[in-house]
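To: structure desk
From: M.T.
Subject: fold request, one chain
Message: Could you run this one when you get a chance? Sequence is below, nothing fancy, just the single chain.
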Amino acid sequence: MSDADLLDQVSHFAFGKNWLNYAETIDEARIAQAVTNLKRLAGSERLDGLSFLDVGCGSGLHALAALRLGATRVVGVDIDSDSVEASRRTLTRFAPGADARLQTCSVFAVPPDRFGDFDIVYSWGVLHHTGDMDRAIASAAALVAPGGAFLVALYRKTPFCGVWRRIKRWYSRATPAGQARARKVYIALQQLAAMLRRRDFDAYVRDYSKARGMNFYNDVHDWLGGYPYESISPQHCHQLLAALGFSLEREFVSPPKFPYGLGGSGCDEYAFRRQRLR
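Reply: Done. Structure tokens follow.
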């Protein structure tokens, strides 16, 4: 992608429309799950007095979780204006009057002179959709204050990632009717896989929100349409962040549910700490 394409939402899948739909389903149970997941990745029960930047704020659920944990300056940015609107609606409903700012902009164009740096920079499942993942990781990491934390989730690299990249490219350009048919096929394959494994697919869908407070059907649309698409191995991620002056504090990594990534790739989660200036 050219630099102009990297900054242009039109060249990216329209996640925001999905987030607007999902934001209407957010309730206290989903907020509680998001809070639990943030505490797990941050390795802390509270974020009192800390500043928090959510890169790719989506529905605003994770910015809200940071506020619930005591963060006192929360900023959310997203290249998609519909995502920013979804976040605004979420924070208006559940955290009116909170010290939170939302802005439509790419991770490649976050204005440091206006936002400064942050105690925590958080980006869950976003930077691999920017069109230049390594550069996006570096851009987000540059916004972490010395001694601060970089919390990031990225798609695990699998042998099937190249095929998924082509599927996602097609889906992101398909008509709504074509996308609907593709979702039906994907869900049918998920049902078949569950049957072969003797697992209850309906129970899986019902319990899906327990994973990240998400909705299964919103996530299917996000997965199939998530283009641009890149992925990364834990080793590459470690090396990249080490070169940027970060040390790994914790990680939650696991192989994909299906062999070779045939059914897709999940996100590995990482918590890095930036070295303090001497």
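Reply (cont.): The beta strands are 51-55, 73-78, 100-104, 118-124, 144-155, 246-252, 267-274. Let me know if you need anything else for the meeting.
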